[in-house]
Write a structure and sequence with these properties.
With 349 residues, chain A is mainly α. Chain A contains 15 helices and four strands. A two-stranded antiparallel sheet of chain A has the order 1-4. Chain A has a two-stranded antiparallel ribbon with strand order 2-3. In chain A, α3 packs across α9, α4 runs antiparallel to α5 and α5 packs antiparallel against α11. The longest helix of chain B is centred in the N-terminal third of the chain and has 25 residues. Chain B is built from 13 helices and 13 strands. Chain B is of the alpha/beta class and 409 residues long. The chains are: A mainly alpha (349), B alpha/beta (409). The interface between A and B is large, with 54 and 62 residues.
């Protein structure tokens, strides 16, 4: 870990610590205090945006483990999110099982389905693997749409609010706490996973799978493990999404969403824990900004109704293109540069 | 305190301030205390359903402009419109409905059944009333706080099926019908009705095929359907996919030869623009009058459309959403009349606005609007149209669409 000048590690524990200095701890505490007190001063709308951001971070973190760390490109992530969402919906609605069972089952079922669709990764990689994961997207959505007796098919299925031990998460603020806690746990898990033997094996496979195999890494096992973890987190995100929206339709999990998730981790920074967080916040806030600014522009400049609606797609496309040209290593890299500059301030190179 | 510590402190304080200020900014300034009536519109202006969402959005905002500027608002109070583009995206729709609730809107509307499906659970839990212009049976069954402006896609199917049996079918035995459905509630709302009523009416459903909103070719599915020799092809979709299906049916020699009918989400001028002469003779069900019909609201609507959105002239979706604007105003007027301006809440709007609607004629643009207990469809009439000489021409008067006894879980 990069540390400010003059800060040295004297024990292995210090060397391994994620939060090493008092400043780190202070920043973490400040962030947690701000987040956990947010419902006191954020309105319903911004809490719902925060909830969507939290759910997306969980899903993007899963994809980042699979694609960013292990190098297995998946363009079927929305399909795995759908599996989690419908698993939770069916268990809590039709079987009236507790939310917590639905949540865990969502992760496990999505993970197991991920194992099935991840099996080709042993034989194929790159674009070829991408195509096989696209197949997962279409097959999963087709099954959901046509397994009407279980999923409700095209009509959709309603999902009861999440509840744990008599506590029902109906309001945006209560859902915010639920989603926040799970998001923090997932990010913490992802950060630590990257530092374990498993995480390092993922990186070795990503960088050169032949060399990794020669070093004794079992490619079959680790690639499938990456698929399981990535899809498990997609399933967890799907479950939270289902209970947050309250009504599911398979159209909510389109291939465009799968592509959006790829865009999110590229913009945020592949193979970093903070990348998905930055990417998700950037994309979701950009969407919110565009949604908010269009009517304001029309009323301010007395434009005809609907005049500004083209702004959204244009700004969104432009932002992604500019990002890929100017900062291809993602926002996480920019954050690293900022931190490095801060550590040396005021004596930067 | 050295500079570095000062910078750290400043950083933390700035971060805290930024996070705190964002929602405060969104709340806006208090401003003057003149009362307004807040109504929220979630519009699919962009995205895959923009071909319908855009003219509908244009119409409802034009109608609000007309009500505020020419009629002086509702009972002397301006309608404050909060509109958002949901991009036909479910997650976006969910954040928008939360925003509208947080902004103290009194009610909301949305265009499509999909967007309503993504908003309705949140709205129902908050007892926040709203209505969908185009809706699927699932939005109003069982009835809660969500209403439908017009008969739903299931009602379209039922109305067309009855018309077909009474006026077109001359063969022996039971006619064979194939359904070609958009893969969402727009399409499958028709299937819901067909499953409940087809047998009772005496129609055999021989095929149920589906397509996507972005389909570019349906030759394969139509070849399959052609092999089953249907008498009717019923399409419940939006104009673009419908145009593809109609053109492909002509290419395959299926049409003319069979009857093609479509639900109200398909039947707009865009369908004729896209499929041209191939649409000649296609039947459709639509719940509004046609452009140029002699009804009280036509002149003002036409004036606004030609002044602000001439590209939408002739588009049936514009008519539908102009009517939507008039219904919003009527709901607000009734609520003010019943409980007074100071007691308006979403709950009061529902009880004393929505549920007091009684034979409101919407300037003649569509069937009268009445709330009936247990039936959250506000208007219950449709008309059958046929495309003749490139024009969408009404061939019946208003046909009542009785409540279909769905049994959704």
């Amino acid at each position: 870990m990069d540390l400010p000048a003059g800060t040295r590690n004297y024990t292995y524990a210090q060397d391994m610590a994620i939060f090493r200095t008092k400043t780190h701890w202070a920043m973490l505490l400040a962030l947690l205090v701000i987040l956990f007190t947010a419902p006191l001063y954020w309105g319903n709308h911004w809490l719902s945006v925060a909830n969507l951001i939290g759910i997306t971070i969980i899903a993007a973190t899963g994809l980042n483990i699979l694609t960013g760390y292990c190098g297995q490109l998946s363009i079927g992530h929305a399909g795995f999110i759908a599996v989690g969402a419908y698993t939770s919906a069916v268990l809590t609605n039709r079987l009236e099982l507790p939310f917590i069972v639905g949540l865990l089952a969502a992760g496990i079922i999505a993970g197991l389905i991920g194992l099935i669709f991840g099996t080709p990764s042993v034989r194929v990689k790159g674009f070829y693997l991408a195509i096989s994961t696209i197949a997962a997207q279409f097959i999963l959505i087709w099954v959901i749409n046509h397994w009407t007796s279980v999923t409700g098919g095209f009509r959709g299925i309603s999902v009861p609010p999440a509840s744990i031990g008599g506590m029902i998460f109906v309001s945006q603020s209560s859902q915010f706490y639920l989603i926040l806690v799970i998001t923090v746990l997932v990010v913490f898990l992802a950060k630590n996973l990257a530092r374990t033997r498993v995480g390092r094996a993922f990186v070795a496979i990503r960088d050169n799978d032949l060399a990794a195999e020669v070093m004794g890494i079992n490619l079959f096992r680790y690639k499938l493990l990456a698929f399981f973890i990535g899809c498990f987190l997609a399933g967890i995100a799907g479950s939270l999404l289902a209970h947050w929206i309250g009504f599911l339709n398979a159209e909510n999990f389109s291939i465009m969403d799968s592509i959006l998730y790829i865009g999110i981790i590229i913009i945020g920074g592949l193979g970093t824990t903070t990348g998905p967080i930055f990417g998700v916040i950037f994309i979701r806030m950009l969407q919110q900004g565009i949604t908010f600014i269009a009517p304001v522009l029309e009323s301010t400049f007395a434009l005809p109704a609907g005049f500004t609606t083209g702004i959204g797609p244009m700004v969104f496309g432009l932002a992604i293109v500019l990002f890929l040209i100017l900062e291809p290593r993602g926002l996480a890299h920019r954050w690293q540069l900022f931190k490095a500059s801060y550590r040396l301030w005021p004596f930067s190179y | 305190m050295n500079w570095k510590k000062l910078l750290k402190m400043a950083g933390i304080v700035s971060l805290a301030l930024m996070i705190t200020i964002i929602p405060l900014l969104s709340a806006g300034c208090a401003g003057t205390e003149e009362k307004t009536l807040k109504a929220g519109f979630s519009i699919c202006y962009t995205g895959v359903a923009a071909e319908k969402g855009r003219p509908m959005g244009n119409a409802k905002l034009d109608c609000m402009k007309y009500i505020n500027e020419e009629l002086g608002g509702v009972a002397g109070y301006q309608i404050e419109v909060i509109w958002r583009d949901n991009q036909y995206d479910a997650a976006k729709a969910a954040t928008i409905i939360n925003e509208l609730i947080a902004a103290d809107c009194l009610m909301f509307t949305t265009n499509s059944s999909k967007m309503m499906a993504s908003s309705m659970e949140i709205a129902n839990r908050a007892e926040f009333p709203g209505f969908a212009v185009f809706s699927s049976p699932v939005c109003t069954h069982p009835p809660q706080h969500i209403y439908a402006q017009m008969p739903d896609y299931g009602d379209d199917w039922a109305a067309f099926a009855k018309y077909y049996l009474e006026n077109i079918w001359q063969g022996e035995g039971r006619p064979k019908m194939a359904l070609h459905l958009l893969n969402n509630p727009t399409g499958y709302g028709a299937q819901d009705a067909a499953l409940v009523l087809a047998d009772e009416l005496g129609i055999d459903i021989v095929a149920i095929d589906e397509h996507t909103a972005t389909t570019t070719n349906e030759i394969e599915s139509l070849t399959r359907i052609k092999g089953l020799n249907p008498d009717i092809l019923y399409i419940s979709s939006t104009p673009q996919p419908t145009s593809i299906i109609v053109k492909n049916a002509v290419e395959l020699g299926m049409y003319p030869g069979i009857t093609i009918g479509c639900g109200h989400a398909s039947l707009t001028s865009v369908l004729i623009e896209l499929a041209g002469a191939d649409t000649e003779g296609v039947y459709g069900v639509y719940p509004t009058v046609n452009w140029g019909d002699d009804v009280p609201a036509m002149a003002k609507m036409t004036e606004y459309c030609q002044e602000y959105h001439p590209e939408d002239y002739g588009n049936m979706d514009y008519v539908t959403s102009w009517a939507e604007g008039l219904i919003v105003a009527e709901i607000l007027r009734l609520a003010i009349e019943n409980v007074g301006i100071d007691n308006l809440t979403p709950q009061a709007i529902e009880e004393y606005g929505f549920q007091k609607l009684d034979n409101f004629d919407v300037g003649g643009l569509h069937g009268p609007v009445t709330y009936t207990s247990g039936d959250n469809r506000l208007s219950k009439s449709v008309r059958v149209f046929q495309i003749l000489d490139g024009e969408i021409t009404p061939i019946t008067g208003w046909v009542e669409a009785p409540l279909i006894p769905y049994e959704f879980e």
